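Batch manifest, entry 17 of 40.
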Amino acid sequence: MIFKRFSFLILGILLIASISCKTNKKENKPLDQPNIILIIADDVSWNDIGPYGNPHIRTPNLDQLAKDGMLFNEAFLTTSSCSPSRTSIISGLYPHNTDAEQLSWPLPQEKKTFVKELKNAGYWTGLAGKYHLGNAVKDDFDVLLEMQWKDAPIGLDRKLVGDGSGCDDWIKLLQNRPKDKPFFAWLASFDAHRPFYKGISDNPHNPENVIIPPYMPNTAKVKEDFALYYDEIARMDDYIGKVVSEIEHQGLTENTMIVFIADNGRAFPRDKTTLYDGGIKTPWIVKWPAKVKAETSCNSLVSAIDIAPTFMKVAGLEPIPDFEGKDFTPLLNEPKLKIHDEIYAEDHFHDYEDYTRAVRTKQYKYVKNYYDDLPDTPSADIVRGRSWQNMLTQKETGTLNTAQLKCFKNPRDKEELFDIVADPYELHNLALDSKYNRVLNDMRHKLATFRRTTNDILPSERTPDDFYRETGLPTKYRIRPRPSKAEYMKARAENRVLVNPEFKE
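Output type: C-alpha coordinates
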Protein backbone atom coordinates (compact mmCIF):
# COMPACT_ATOMS: atom_id res chain seq x y z
CA MET A 1 0.00 0.00 0.00
CA ILE A 2 2.81 2.37 0.91
CA PHE A 3 4.57 1.49 -2.36
CA LYS A 4 1.40 2.23 -4.35
CA ARG A 5 0.97 5.60 -2.63
CA PHE A 6 4.61 6.40 -3.29
CA SER A 7 4.20 5.41 -6.94
CA PHE A 8 1.16 7.65 -7.32
CA LEU A 9 3.07 10.49 -5.68
CA ILE A 10 5.97 10.07 -8.10
CA LEU A 11 3.58 9.91 -11.06
CA GLY A 12 1.83 13.06 -9.83
CA ILE A 13 5.11 14.93 -9.50
CA LEU A 14 6.16 13.83 -12.97
CA LEU A 15 2.79 14.86 -14.43
CA ILE A 16 2.96 18.29 -12.80
CA ALA A 17 6.53 18.72 -14.00
CA SER A 18 5.50 17.70 -17.50
CA ILE A 19 2.63 20.17 -17.54
CA SER A 20 4.92 22.85 -16.11
CA CYS A 21 7.53 22.25 -18.80
CA LYS A 22 4.92 22.42 -21.55
CA THR A 23 3.48 25.59 -20.08
CA ASN A 24 6.88 27.22 -19.80
CA LYS A 25 7.72 26.14 -23.32
CA LYS A 26 4.49 27.66 -24.58
CA GLU A 27 5.04 30.86 -22.61
CA ASN A 28 8.59 31.18 -23.91
CA LYS A 29 7.73 30.35 -27.52
CA PRO A 30 7.46 34.03 -28.55
CA LEU A 31 11.12 34.45 -27.64
CA ASP A 32 11.95 32.13 -30.54
CA GLN A 33 9.95 34.25 -32.99
CA PRO A 34 11.95 36.60 -35.22
CA ASN A 35 12.27 40.25 -34.37
CA ILE A 36 11.26 42.54 -37.24
CA ILE A 37 12.57 46.01 -38.02
CA LEU A 38 11.10 48.11 -40.83
CA ILE A 39 13.22 51.13 -41.76
CA ILE A 40 11.46 53.68 -43.99
CA ALA A 41 13.35 56.45 -45.74
CA ASP A 42 11.42 59.59 -46.68
CA ASP A 43 11.46 60.68 -50.34
CA VAL A 44 14.43 58.58 -51.49
CA SER A 45 14.66 56.96 -54.94
CA TRP A 46 16.13 53.48 -55.35
CA ASN A 47 19.04 54.61 -57.52
CA ASP A 48 20.22 57.26 -55.08
CA ILE A 49 21.93 54.81 -52.72
CA GLY A 50 25.15 52.88 -53.18
CA PRO A 51 23.77 49.32 -53.45
CA TYR A 52 21.97 50.25 -56.68
CA GLY A 53 25.10 51.54 -58.34
CA ASN A 54 25.35 55.22 -57.44
CA PRO A 55 29.12 55.68 -57.08
CA HIS A 56 29.00 59.17 -55.56
CA ILE A 57 26.51 58.87 -52.70
CA ARG A 58 28.06 57.92 -49.36
CA THR A 59 25.94 55.10 -47.93
CA PRO A 60 28.43 52.65 -46.36
CA ASN A 61 25.88 51.18 -43.96
CA LEU A 62 23.28 50.54 -46.63
CA ASP A 63 26.07 49.08 -48.79
CA GLN A 64 26.88 46.66 -45.95
CA LEU A 65 23.21 45.89 -45.29
CA ALA A 66 22.87 44.80 -48.92
CA LYS A 67 26.05 42.71 -48.73
CA ASP A 68 24.72 40.98 -45.64
CA GLY A 69 21.33 40.22 -47.19
CA MET A 70 19.20 40.36 -50.32
CA LEU A 71 18.81 43.32 -52.68
CA PHE A 72 15.50 43.58 -54.55
CA ASN A 73 15.89 45.18 -57.98
CA GLU A 74 12.22 45.37 -58.99
CA ALA A 75 10.47 46.72 -55.90
CA PHE A 76 7.59 49.18 -56.03
CA LEU A 77 5.26 51.25 -53.90
CA THR A 78 1.51 51.50 -54.28
CA THR A 79 1.70 55.28 -54.52
CA SER A 80 4.26 58.08 -54.55
CA SER A 81 2.80 60.16 -51.75
CA CYS A 82 3.92 60.17 -48.10
CA SER A 83 0.99 59.27 -45.85
CA PRO A 84 -1.00 57.23 -48.43
CA SER A 85 2.08 55.08 -48.96
CA ARG A 86 2.48 54.49 -45.22
CA THR A 87 -1.20 53.75 -44.59
CA SER A 88 -1.12 51.32 -47.52
CA ILE A 89 1.91 49.54 -46.04
CA ILE A 90 0.48 49.21 -42.53
CA SER A 91 -3.02 48.16 -43.64
CA GLY A 92 -1.98 45.86 -46.48
CA LEU A 93 -4.49 47.63 -48.76
CA TYR A 94 -4.19 49.60 -51.96
CA PRO A 95 -4.59 53.31 -51.16
CA HIS A 96 -8.08 53.61 -52.65
CA ASN A 97 -9.25 50.92 -50.21
CA THR A 98 -7.70 52.50 -47.12
CA ASP A 99 -10.05 55.52 -47.07
CA ALA A 100 -6.82 57.44 -46.52
CA GLU A 101 -5.76 57.77 -50.14
CA GLN A 102 -5.22 61.53 -50.07
CA LEU A 103 -2.26 63.18 -48.37
CA SER A 104 -2.75 63.49 -44.59
CA TRP A 105 -6.07 61.68 -44.50
CA PRO A 106 -5.91 59.52 -41.33
CA LEU A 107 -6.39 55.76 -41.52
CA PRO A 108 -9.86 54.99 -40.11
CA GLN A 109 -10.32 52.99 -36.91
CA GLU A 110 -11.99 50.06 -38.65
CA LYS A 111 -8.99 49.31 -40.88
CA LYS A 112 -6.91 46.41 -39.60
CA THR A 113 -3.13 46.64 -39.50
CA PHE A 114 -0.37 44.07 -39.37
CA VAL A 115 1.10 45.95 -36.39
CA LYS A 116 -2.05 45.37 -34.34
CA GLU A 117 -2.03 41.71 -35.34
CA LEU A 118 1.57 41.33 -34.21
CA LYS A 119 0.78 43.10 -30.95
CA ASN A 120 -2.20 40.82 -30.31
CA ALA A 121 0.04 37.80 -30.93
CA GLY A 122 2.50 38.84 -28.21
CA TYR A 123 4.92 41.09 -30.05
CA TRP A 124 6.05 44.35 -28.49
CA THR A 125 5.52 47.06 -31.12
CA GLY A 126 7.19 50.45 -31.30
CA LEU A 127 7.56 53.38 -33.69
CA ALA A 128 10.22 56.08 -33.70
CA GLY A 129 10.46 58.98 -36.14
CA LYS A 130 7.92 60.07 -38.73
CA TYR A 131 4.39 58.86 -38.03
CA HIS A 132 1.83 60.32 -40.51
CA LEU A 133 -0.81 57.59 -40.06
CA GLY A 134 -3.60 59.25 -38.04
CA ASN A 135 -4.77 59.02 -34.44
CA ALA A 136 -6.70 55.76 -34.84
CA VAL A 137 -3.54 53.70 -35.38
CA LYS A 138 -1.53 55.07 -32.45
CA ASP A 139 -2.69 52.36 -30.04
CA ASP A 140 -1.31 49.69 -32.37
CA PHE A 141 2.10 50.66 -31.03
CA ASP A 142 3.11 49.98 -27.43
CA VAL A 143 5.46 52.94 -27.67
CA LEU A 144 5.25 55.83 -30.11
CA LEU A 145 8.19 58.25 -30.22
CA GLU A 146 6.95 60.63 -32.89
CA MET A 147 9.33 63.28 -34.20
CA GLN A 148 8.48 66.80 -33.04
CA TRP A 149 8.49 70.12 -34.87
CA LYS A 150 10.24 73.22 -33.58
CA ASP A 151 7.65 75.52 -35.16
CA ALA A 152 3.90 75.50 -35.82
CA PRO A 153 2.56 72.64 -37.98
CA ILE A 154 1.27 75.12 -40.58
CA GLY A 155 4.79 76.41 -41.23
CA LEU A 156 6.21 75.97 -44.71
CA ASP A 157 9.95 75.53 -44.10
CA ARG A 158 9.68 73.56 -40.89
CA LYS A 159 12.52 72.28 -38.73
CA LEU A 160 12.53 69.35 -36.34
CA VAL A 161 13.57 69.04 -32.74
CA GLY A 162 16.94 67.29 -32.75
CA ASP A 163 19.30 67.17 -35.71
CA GLY A 164 16.53 67.29 -38.31
CA SER A 165 16.79 63.65 -39.39
CA GLY A 166 13.75 62.34 -37.52
CA CYS A 167 15.94 59.40 -36.46
CA ASP A 168 17.03 60.72 -33.03
CA ASP A 169 14.96 58.19 -31.03
CA TRP A 170 15.64 55.04 -33.05
CA ILE A 171 18.25 53.63 -30.67
CA LYS A 172 16.31 54.75 -27.60
CA LEU A 173 13.33 52.72 -28.83
CA LEU A 174 15.45 49.60 -29.33
CA GLN A 175 17.23 49.92 -26.00
CA ASN A 176 14.16 50.56 -23.85
CA ARG A 177 11.95 47.79 -25.22
CA PRO A 178 10.99 44.87 -22.93
CA LYS A 179 13.50 42.06 -23.27
CA ASP A 180 11.04 39.18 -22.69
CA LYS A 181 9.09 39.57 -25.95
CA PRO A 182 9.82 39.46 -29.65
CA PHE A 183 9.56 42.96 -31.07
CA PHE A 184 8.51 44.87 -34.15
CA ALA A 185 10.08 48.31 -34.69
CA TRP A 186 8.89 50.84 -37.28
CA LEU A 187 11.84 53.22 -37.73
CA ALA A 188 10.87 56.12 -39.97
CA SER A 189 13.36 58.76 -41.09
CA PHE A 190 12.45 62.30 -42.10
CA ASP A 191 15.52 62.30 -44.35
CA ALA A 192 15.50 63.09 -47.21
CA HIS A 193 12.31 65.18 -47.10
CA ARG A 194 12.40 68.82 -48.12
CA PRO A 195 13.34 71.51 -47.24
CA PHE A 196 17.07 70.82 -47.67
CA TYR A 197 19.37 72.88 -45.45
CA LYS A 198 23.02 73.63 -45.94
CA GLY A 199 25.53 72.73 -43.23
CA ILE A 200 24.03 69.45 -42.00
CA SER A 201 27.16 67.52 -43.03
CA ASP A 202 30.79 67.98 -42.01
CA ASN A 203 31.70 66.41 -45.34
CA PRO A 204 29.12 67.66 -47.85
CA HIS A 205 28.69 66.01 -51.22
CA ASN A 206 30.21 67.75 -54.21
CA PRO A 207 27.53 69.14 -56.56
CA GLU A 208 29.75 68.23 -59.50
CA ASN A 209 29.49 64.54 -58.65
CA VAL A 210 25.71 64.13 -58.41
CA ILE A 211 23.74 62.16 -61.01
CA ILE A 212 20.96 64.20 -62.63
CA PRO A 213 18.24 62.29 -64.52
CA PRO A 214 17.76 63.52 -68.10
CA TYR A 215 14.28 64.92 -67.41
CA MET A 216 15.89 67.63 -65.29
CA PRO A 217 18.30 70.36 -66.45
CA ASN A 218 21.95 69.83 -65.52
CA THR A 219 22.39 73.32 -64.05
CA ALA A 220 24.36 74.58 -61.05
CA LYS A 221 21.20 75.14 -58.99
CA VAL A 222 19.86 71.66 -59.68
CA LYS A 223 23.22 70.06 -58.87
CA GLU A 224 23.39 72.03 -55.62
CA ASP A 225 19.90 70.78 -54.74
CA PHE A 226 20.89 67.17 -55.43
CA ALA A 227 24.05 67.48 -53.33
CA LEU A 228 22.01 68.65 -50.33
CA TYR A 229 19.61 65.75 -50.93
CA TYR A 230 22.60 63.37 -50.91
CA ASP A 231 23.72 64.87 -47.57
CA GLU A 232 20.39 63.94 -45.99
CA ILE A 233 20.60 60.38 -47.32
CA ALA A 234 24.09 60.08 -45.83
CA ARG A 235 22.81 61.28 -42.45
CA MET A 236 20.06 58.65 -42.51
CA ASP A 237 22.63 56.02 -43.51
CA ASP A 238 24.62 56.81 -40.39
CA TYR A 239 21.57 56.07 -38.21
CA ILE A 240 21.00 52.79 -40.03
CA GLY A 241 24.55 51.81 -39.07
CA LYS A 242 23.72 52.59 -35.45
CA VAL A 243 20.63 50.37 -35.61
CA VAL A 244 22.62 47.43 -36.97
CA SER A 245 25.30 47.94 -34.29
CA GLU A 246 22.67 48.09 -31.53
CA ILE A 247 21.08 44.83 -32.68
CA GLU A 248 24.53 43.22 -32.73
CA HIS A 249 25.23 44.57 -29.22
CA GLN A 250 21.99 43.00 -27.98
CA GLY A 251 22.97 39.66 -29.53
CA LEU A 252 19.94 39.59 -31.82
CA THR A 253 21.50 39.77 -35.28
CA GLU A 254 20.87 36.18 -36.38
CA ASN A 255 17.11 36.15 -35.94
CA THR A 256 16.22 39.77 -36.58
CA MET A 257 14.70 40.61 -39.96
CA ILE A 258 15.62 44.13 -41.13
CA VAL A 259 13.77 45.53 -44.14
CA PHE A 260 14.75 48.87 -45.66
CA ILE A 261 12.47 50.73 -48.09
CA ALA A 262 11.37 54.30 -48.91
CA ASP A 263 7.84 55.71 -48.81
CA ASN A 264 8.20 57.27 -52.28
CA GLY A 265 10.80 58.61 -54.65
CA ARG A 266 12.98 61.71 -54.41
CA ALA A 267 11.33 65.10 -53.92
CA PHE A 268 12.21 66.43 -57.35
CA PRO A 269 10.13 67.27 -60.44
CA ARG A 270 8.73 64.22 -62.27
CA ASP A 271 9.59 61.92 -59.36
CA LYS A 272 7.61 62.22 -56.10
CA THR A 273 3.81 62.37 -56.69
CA THR A 274 4.19 60.77 -60.12
CA LEU A 275 3.82 57.15 -61.21
CA TYR A 276 7.08 57.11 -63.15
CA ASP A 277 9.76 54.89 -61.67
CA GLY A 278 11.37 57.94 -60.07
CA GLY A 279 8.26 58.13 -57.90
CA ILE A 280 7.21 54.54 -57.22
CA LYS A 281 10.31 52.35 -57.59
CA THR A 282 11.85 51.88 -54.17
CA PRO A 283 15.07 50.61 -52.62
CA TRP A 284 14.30 47.32 -50.90
CA ILE A 285 16.88 45.44 -48.83
CA VAL A 286 16.27 42.47 -46.54
CA LYS A 287 18.82 41.31 -43.97
CA TRP A 288 17.95 38.23 -41.91
CA PRO A 289 20.99 36.00 -41.35
CA ALA A 290 18.92 33.07 -40.08
CA LYS A 291 16.96 32.87 -43.34
CA VAL A 292 18.57 35.02 -46.05
CA LYS A 293 21.91 34.30 -47.68
CA ALA A 294 24.35 37.18 -47.83
CA GLU A 295 25.17 38.92 -51.12
CA THR A 296 22.06 37.74 -52.91
CA SER A 297 19.63 39.62 -55.13
CA CYS A 298 16.10 39.22 -56.46
CA ASN A 299 14.78 40.46 -59.80
CA SER A 300 11.16 39.44 -59.19
CA LEU A 301 8.44 42.06 -58.88
CA VAL A 302 7.44 42.93 -55.33
CA SER A 303 5.14 45.64 -54.02
CA ALA A 304 4.75 47.45 -50.72
CA ILE A 305 1.31 45.83 -50.57
CA ASP A 306 3.20 42.59 -49.81
CA ILE A 307 4.80 43.80 -46.58
CA ALA A 308 1.79 43.29 -44.27
CA PRO A 309 1.14 39.61 -45.13
CA THR A 310 4.86 38.88 -45.16
CA PHE A 311 5.51 40.23 -41.67
CA MET A 312 2.61 38.21 -40.32
CA LYS A 313 4.00 35.06 -41.96
CA VAL A 314 7.44 35.78 -40.53
CA ALA A 315 5.85 36.04 -37.08
CA GLY A 316 4.22 32.63 -37.56
CA LEU A 317 0.74 34.06 -38.15
CA GLU A 318 -1.70 33.63 -40.99
CA PRO A 319 -2.25 36.92 -42.88
CA ILE A 320 -5.75 38.30 -42.40
CA PRO A 321 -8.08 37.99 -45.42
CA ASP A 322 -8.36 41.79 -45.76
CA PHE A 323 -4.78 42.09 -47.02
CA GLU A 324 -4.48 42.58 -50.78
CA GLY A 325 -0.78 41.75 -51.15
CA LYS A 326 1.18 38.50 -51.21
CA ASP A 327 3.68 36.94 -48.85
CA PHE A 328 7.13 37.43 -50.38
CA THR A 329 9.04 35.10 -48.02
CA PRO A 330 9.35 32.37 -50.71
CA LEU A 331 11.62 34.78 -52.62
CA LEU A 332 14.04 34.88 -49.70
CA ASN A 333 14.97 31.25 -50.39
CA GLU A 334 14.27 31.14 -54.12
CA PRO A 335 14.70 34.64 -55.56
CA LYS A 336 13.86 33.48 -59.10
CA LEU A 337 10.29 32.64 -58.13
CA LYS A 338 7.51 34.95 -59.35
CA ILE A 339 4.74 36.22 -57.10
CA HIS A 340 3.48 39.03 -59.39
CA ASP A 341 3.08 39.34 -63.15
CA GLU A 342 2.60 43.07 -62.74
CA ILE A 343 2.34 45.71 -60.02
CA TYR A 344 -0.19 48.53 -59.68
CA ALA A 345 0.22 52.05 -58.44
CA GLU A 346 -2.03 55.05 -58.02
CA ASP A 347 -1.77 58.79 -57.50
CA HIS A 348 -4.33 60.93 -55.70
CA PHE A 349 -4.43 64.42 -54.22
CA HIS A 350 -1.07 65.47 -52.75
CA ASP A 351 -1.06 69.25 -52.18
CA TYR A 352 -2.62 69.43 -55.67
CA GLU A 353 -5.45 67.44 -57.15
CA ASP A 354 -4.62 64.48 -59.37
CA TYR A 355 -5.93 61.04 -60.29
CA THR A 356 -3.58 58.71 -62.15
CA ARG A 357 -3.17 54.94 -62.39
CA ALA A 358 -0.29 52.75 -63.55
CA VAL A 359 0.40 49.12 -64.41
CA ARG A 360 4.00 47.95 -64.64
CA THR A 361 5.39 44.64 -65.80
CA LYS A 362 9.07 43.74 -66.00
CA GLN A 363 9.22 45.37 -69.46
CA TYR A 364 6.36 47.84 -69.85
CA LYS A 365 4.71 50.66 -67.91
CA TYR A 366 1.20 51.92 -68.70
CA VAL A 367 0.03 55.20 -67.16
CA LYS A 368 -3.48 56.60 -67.45
CA ASN A 369 -3.98 60.25 -66.52
CA TYR A 370 -7.68 60.63 -65.70
CA TYR A 371 -7.32 64.36 -64.97
CA ASP A 372 -5.28 65.09 -68.08
CA ASP A 373 -6.48 68.71 -68.03
CA LEU A 374 -4.26 69.31 -64.97
CA PRO A 375 -0.50 69.77 -65.36
CA ASP A 376 1.83 67.32 -63.59
CA THR A 377 2.74 69.87 -60.91
CA PRO A 378 5.08 68.38 -58.26
CA SER A 379 4.38 68.70 -54.54
CA ALA A 380 4.36 72.20 -53.05
CA ASP A 381 7.69 71.77 -51.24
CA ILE A 382 9.27 70.89 -54.59
CA VAL A 383 7.64 73.94 -56.19
CA ARG A 384 9.29 76.13 -53.55
CA GLY A 385 12.64 74.36 -53.94
CA ARG A 386 15.80 75.27 -55.85
CA SER A 387 15.36 72.84 -58.73
CA TRP A 388 11.81 73.80 -59.68
CA GLN A 389 12.49 77.51 -59.34
CA ASN A 390 15.51 77.08 -61.60
CA MET A 391 13.39 75.13 -64.08
CA LEU A 392 10.91 78.01 -64.17
CA THR A 393 13.76 80.31 -65.14
CA GLN A 394 15.01 77.85 -67.74
CA LYS A 395 11.50 77.54 -69.14
CA GLU A 396 11.27 81.29 -69.63
CA THR A 397 14.60 81.36 -71.46
CA GLY A 398 13.60 78.41 -73.65
CA THR A 399 16.48 76.16 -72.57
CA LEU A 400 14.46 73.13 -71.38
CA ASN A 401 14.11 70.16 -73.71
CA THR A 402 10.91 68.19 -74.31
CA ALA A 403 11.48 65.75 -71.44
CA GLN A 404 12.23 68.60 -69.04
CA LEU A 405 9.08 70.46 -70.07
CA LYS A 406 6.83 67.51 -69.32
CA CYS A 407 5.81 68.74 -65.86
CA PHE A 408 4.47 71.90 -67.48
CA LYS A 409 2.57 70.16 -70.28
CA ASN A 410 -1.13 71.00 -70.28
CA PRO A 411 -3.12 69.06 -71.25
CA ARG A 412 -1.15 65.95 -70.45
CA ASP A 413 -1.16 62.80 -72.52
CA LYS A 414 -4.25 60.82 -71.59
CA GLU A 415 -2.33 57.58 -71.89
CA GLU A 416 1.36 56.76 -71.68
CA LEU A 417 3.21 53.57 -72.54
CA PHE A 418 6.91 53.00 -71.95
CA ASP A 419 9.33 50.20 -72.71
CA ILE A 420 11.21 50.25 -69.41
CA VAL A 421 14.00 48.02 -70.68
CA ALA A 422 14.80 50.21 -73.67
CA ASP A 423 13.77 53.50 -72.06
CA PRO A 424 14.40 53.32 -68.28
CA TYR A 425 13.80 57.06 -67.75
CA GLU A 426 10.39 56.83 -69.48
CA LEU A 427 11.08 59.58 -71.99
CA HIS A 428 9.35 58.16 -75.08
CA ASN A 429 5.58 57.64 -74.99
CA LEU A 430 4.70 54.68 -77.20
CA ALA A 431 0.93 54.91 -76.74
CA LEU A 432 0.43 56.47 -80.19
CA ASP A 433 2.81 54.10 -81.95
CA SER A 434 0.72 51.50 -83.82
CA LYS A 435 3.52 48.94 -83.45
CA TYR A 436 2.63 48.74 -79.76
CA ASN A 437 -1.15 48.43 -80.10
CA ARG A 438 -1.16 44.86 -78.81
CA VAL A 439 0.87 45.81 -75.75
CA LEU A 440 -1.25 48.91 -75.17
CA ASN A 441 -4.52 46.98 -75.31
CA ASP A 442 -3.15 44.31 -72.98
CA MET A 443 -2.11 46.91 -70.43
CA ARG A 444 -5.46 48.67 -70.72
CA HIS A 445 -7.14 45.36 -69.98
CA LYS A 446 -4.90 44.74 -66.96
CA LEU A 447 -5.77 48.14 -65.52
CA ALA A 448 -9.49 47.77 -66.18
CA THR A 449 -9.49 44.35 -64.51
CA PHE A 450 -7.59 45.67 -61.52
CA ARG A 451 -9.95 48.61 -61.06
CA ARG A 452 -12.97 46.37 -61.30
CA THR A 453 -11.73 43.69 -58.90
CA THR A 454 -10.49 46.19 -56.29
CA ASN A 455 -13.46 48.57 -56.61
CA ASP A 456 -11.34 51.50 -57.75
CA ILE A 457 -13.83 54.20 -58.77
CA LEU A 458 -13.28 57.73 -60.09
CA PRO A 459 -14.47 60.30 -57.48
CA SER A 460 -17.62 62.27 -58.29
CA GLU A 461 -15.94 65.56 -57.30
CA ARG A 462 -12.44 66.97 -57.31
CA THR A 463 -10.55 68.21 -54.27
CA PRO A 464 -9.45 71.88 -54.27
CA ASP A 465 -5.69 72.45 -54.27
CA ASP A 466 -4.09 73.13 -50.88
CA PHE A 467 -1.40 75.29 -52.48
CA TYR A 468 -1.07 77.63 -55.42
CA ARG A 469 0.59 75.81 -58.29
CA GLU A 470 2.60 78.86 -59.29
CA THR A 471 4.18 79.64 -55.91
CA GLY A 472 3.72 76.64 -53.61
CA LEU A 473 2.10 78.91 -51.01
CA PRO A 474 -1.01 77.76 -49.07
CA THR A 475 -4.58 78.36 -50.20
CA LYS A 476 -7.57 78.66 -47.90
CA TYR A 477 -8.26 74.94 -48.36
CA ARG A 478 -5.14 73.84 -46.48
CA ILE A 479 -6.20 72.59 -43.05
CA ARG A 480 -3.92 70.88 -40.51
CA PRO A 481 -4.58 68.44 -39.04
CA ARG A 482 -6.43 67.49 -42.19
CA PRO A 483 -10.01 66.25 -41.75
CA SER A 484 -10.72 62.61 -42.56
CA LYS A 485 -12.23 61.34 -45.79
CA ALA A 486 -15.51 60.77 -43.94
CA GLU A 487 -15.57 64.41 -42.84
CA TYR A 488 -14.91 65.58 -46.40
CA MET A 489 -17.66 63.35 -47.76
CA LYS A 490 -20.09 64.62 -45.13
CA ALA A 491 -19.29 68.23 -46.01
CA ARG A 492 -19.85 67.53 -49.69
CA ALA A 493 -23.19 65.87 -48.98
CA GLU A 494 -24.20 69.02 -47.11
CA ASN A 495 -22.90 71.27 -49.92
CA ARG A 496 -20.21 72.69 -47.66
CA VAL A 497 -16.57 73.34 -48.55
CA LEU A 498 -14.01 72.86 -45.78
CA VAL A 499 -11.66 75.82 -45.45
CA ASN A 500 -9.11 77.06 -42.93
CA PRO A 501 -10.89 79.72 -40.79
CA GLU A 502 -7.53 81.30 -39.88
CA PHE A 503 -6.34 81.64 -43.48
CA LYS A 504 -5.02 85.05 -44.56
CA GLU A 505 -4.02 85.96 -48.10
